[in-house]
Specification:
four-stranded parallel sheet; about 15% strand; single chain; alpha/beta
């Protein structure tokens, strides 16, 4: 019976309309929406209520972005690149720019600059989460001390893939889900390897990957 079921809302969040539908079902609803994502939902609701049109810097179709767009009741657009600003129609009042919480800060800043140049009265709300910023910045700092990177996380995780993209621009980079994916032959020529992980990666998985890398014998 549904009354004996628990339905979990995942960290990406869901549109308000879907939540309303689920709350009518005869089951227990547990909300595990990330607090950072929930904050963006509230900001979008406030800005749309004020008559602004919301721009979401993010990946169209990503579950988090679907939830963000759903908060805007049709008054939102998804953009990905600064060039997208050139094709925006004039807003009914003004634009408000937010970001999917795991996007690149530098890319967000470029889009914000393009938006302000074309629509000077636009509102820009930097909604990239602090954890994402910290993990990305740590890669740049580690790159000075390591020979390669291992990024641990789900291959479908947006923030994991962005970490991998940054790491690959800095040093040789490898993506794994678990320690079982570590191939010793890939790492024997490296003296030091930096490790980072997507936000949803359990700490015990990260520890197992670290141990697996430490157990690889180095070539003399």
């Amino acid at each position: 019976k549904l009354s004996n079921c628990i339905l979990l809302i995942r960290a990406h969040g869901i549109p308000p309309q879907r939540r309303d539908m689920l709350e009518k079902l005869p089951l227990r609803l547990e909300d595990a929406t990330c607090p950072d994502v929930a904050r963006i939902h509230r900001l979008i609701l406030e800005r749309v209520s004020a008559g602004e049109t919301v721009l979401v810097f993010g990946d169209a179709g990503h579950p988090e972005v679907v939830g963000l767009i759903g908060c805007a009741a049709g008054n939102a657009l998804v953009i990905k690149h600064p060039d997208d600003v050139k094709t925006l129609p004039p807003p009914r009042l003004r634009y408000c720019l937010v970001a999917q919480s795991t996007q690149f800060p530098v890319s967000f800043e470029r889009i914000a600059a393009a938006l302000r140049a074309r629509f000077p009265d636009s509102v820009v709300l930097d909604t990239i989460c602090r954890s994402t910023r910290r993990r990305q910045q740590e890669l740049f700092e580690m790159a000075e001390r390591v020979d390669a990177f291992v990024i641990v996380g789900d291959p479908h995780s947006a923030n994991t893939l962005r970490l991998l993209e940054i790491a690959a621009d800095l040093k040789p980079a490898f993506h794994v889900q678990t320690a079982a994916d570590i191939k010793a032959a890939d790492f024997r020529d490296f003296r030091s390897v930096g490790i980072s992980a997507g936000a949803s990666t359990p700490s015990f998985v990260l520890e197992e990957v670290r141990k697996a890398l430490e157990d690889i014998p180095s070539r003399k």
